Amino acid sequence: MRILFLFALLVLLPPPLHAAGLEDMLRKLVSASPGGLPDPVRFAHAMEQGDLGAAREWLDAGLAPDFEGAVIGSGLMIGAWEGNIPLMELFHQRGADINQRNHLGEQALQHAAWRGKLAAVRWLVERGAKIDREGREWSALHYAVFAGHADVVEYLLAQGADINALSTNGSTPLMMAAREGREAIAKRLLAAGANRDIVNENGENAVHWAMRQNNLSIAREIGGAEKFGVAAARPAASWGPAVRSQPVPDRADSLMAAARRMEAAGRRDEALNLYRAALTAIRQADAARKIGPAPARAATGMVITAKRDKPEAQSASLSYATPALPEAAKVGAGATATAASSAATDASDDWLRRARELESAGKRQEALQAYRQAAASLRTASAASGLTLSPSLAPPPGRGPTPLP
Q1: How far is C-alpha 57 from the geometric centre of its chain's CA atoms?
Q2: Model's pTM, two decimal places?
Q3: From the centroid of its chain, how far is CA 247?
Q4: Neighbour-count burial of 5, counting CB atoms closer than 10 A to its CB (0-12 exposed, 13-18 middle, 19+ buried)
Q5: Partners of 319 in the beta sheet?
Q6: Do 353 and 374 form a contact (C-beta atoms < 8 A)?
Q7: How, if at all, do strands 299-307 and 310-320 pair?
Q8: Which of 27, 190, 282, 304 has the fewest C-beta atoms under 10 angstroms from its C-beta?
Q9: CA distance 360 to 344
């Protein structure tokens, strides 16, 4: 069929194009064969390494400019994630959609904002990236606030970002600042007119999250002295368990990256070993988080009680900020999170068993897929139990702020 097609081209092409034009077309046809284009893993690895040569070759061979690689997304998204403007420019020039969503619903602008790549954020906005999203969606401002990138926050606000943007569950950027202890950013948001009283789907506002996380100065800043005094007097258990964000150890991140490189190079045995080691590192990080000591309770004020007719009965006591509750004390949303974590852990165990069986049967490619599924389930378990993974490993709503209130 291809030979007939080329013969037809010979007949139809003008004479000057017979030699150079046909030679170029032949090269493109051959390179565009199934074996010449990358799979998502190979594509992602090359783009994360900033291989512009490979990107041009694949695009010339017919690769769709919005082709989605493993983990992060399209070439333009990977460029945003890495802050690689030449890579973004290449895919943009070839027709990539600057507002494309990946399989997690993220866009390039959220990636650049989460990673604090201000130059990439500017480049994207200047070329038409939408700062705000339609409906309830995690925005670039949410991501920048959560990650603590004040310069990106400042730029997005200057470009008119919706300061009260609502996430999928109705949380605002101010709630993110309260949750993560970003005091300077919280003050900036308040100065810019952030609404202090918005309540999300869980019935929680920014003060609630600041108190839950023991971020007292932020709670005082948001609520004012009177509301803060009322909040500080509430029973500790009323705030629920603190949900601390922490990155997966660098070791786990580097192991996963190395595993993807080995897999892309066809070295499956090494990839399998690296995936297993990464899973172990993630489990160890989660276990350390669960058994770690609870944060110290900080005194927030003094409560004095007295009666006019019984001065001798006067008493004084300190009020404390809420510490994190032990696992057994979790209620409400905490119990739901624990159940979700347990279910995801069971799923990861099932995938691990399946991966080992496939590996024993010599089915290496299927085993790799199962190991990846186990890793994804384990990340979900860690997120549900309060561990936020590093961006390159975290599950929806993004590799950034997960889990969010």
Answers
A1: 30
A2: 0.62
A3: 11
A4: exposed
A5: 301
A6: no
A7: antiparallel
A8: 304
A9: 24
Q: What angle do CA 126, 128, 132 make, to 5 degrees?
A: 105
Supply the DSSP symbol for 306.
E
Instruction: Give the Cβ contact number of residue 251 at 10 Å.
Output: 15
Residue among 108, 107, 68 at smallest CA distance from 85: 108
**Token representation of residue 185:** 């950013």
The DSSP result for 180-238, as a single string, is: HT-HHHHHHHHHTT--S----TTS--HHHHHHHTT-HHHHHHHHHHHHHHHHHHS-GGG
Residue 3 has pLDDT above 70, yes or no: no
Name 50's Cβ contacts closer than 8 Å, sequence gap at least 6: 82, 84, 86, 87
- Which token pair is 289? 């988080």
State the pLDDT confidence band at 304, using cuts at 50, 70 and 90: very low
Measured CA to CA, the distance from residue 193 to residue 180 in angstroms comes to 20
pLDDT in tens, 65-112: 999 998 789 999 999 999 999 999 999 999 999 999 998 899 999 999
| 59 three-state secondary structure | helix
What is 32-130's CATH superfamily? Ankyrin repeat-containing domain (1.25.40.20)
What confidence tier does 233 reach under pLDDT thresholds 50, 70, 90?
confident
DSSP at 334 = H
* pLDDT score of 124: 98
Pick the CATH number of 135-239 from 3.40.50.1010, 1.25.40.20, 2.60.40.1500, 1.10.3720.10: 1.25.40.20
